[in-house]
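Board notes (copied after class):
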Amino acid sequence: MTPTDVTDATFDAEVLQADVPVVVDFWADWCGPCKRMSPLLEEVAAEQGDRIKVVKLDTDANPASTMKYRITGIPAFKVFRGGEEVGEIIGAMPKPVFEQRLAALL
C-alpha cells in the first residue's frame, strides 16, 4: 500500500475519521529532506499497511491544515488515532530510528 495524498478538503475524512492510526507526512516539493524520507515512508506503508494508514499532505498547497497542526518545519510526521493527534516525529532520519519513534506512538 502506498501513501495516499490528502488535502485540506479531505483531511477530516481521510485522517480524523480513519478506523486505524494514521501517519501524516507534511512535506513540500522543494524540501530535500522530505524527498529523502519519501521512499522510507513508502516502505513503512507497504510493510505496515494492514495496521496503519500513511498519507501525505503538501504544505504549500494546503495551508489550512499546515497552520491548524502547527507545522513550522518539514518534514514533519503527525500520528493520529481516533481523530486525535497522539504525537509527532520531526525531521529526516534513518528508517530504524523512524520506525522506533513511530512504534512508541502507536
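Comment from the instructor: Helices lie at 11-16, 32-48, 63-68, 95-105. The longest helix spans residues 32-48.
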